[in-house]
Amino acid sequence: MKLHDFFWDSPALDPYRKNAKSGTLLFEQGFPATSFLIITRGIIELVAKKNDRFSVINYLGAGNMLGEKALFDPSVFARVFGARALGDVSYLEFNQTAIKDLRQKAPDLLIEILEATLRISHERIHRMNLLVQKFRSSHPTERFLQLLLHFCVYHGHPCSEGQAIIVNFETINYYLDINSYQLEEMLDGLLKTNLLIKKTDSVFVIPNEEKFRESIPKLKEEIVPIDFI
Question: Which fold has domain 133-222?
Answer without folding.
Answer: Jelly Rolls (2.60.120)
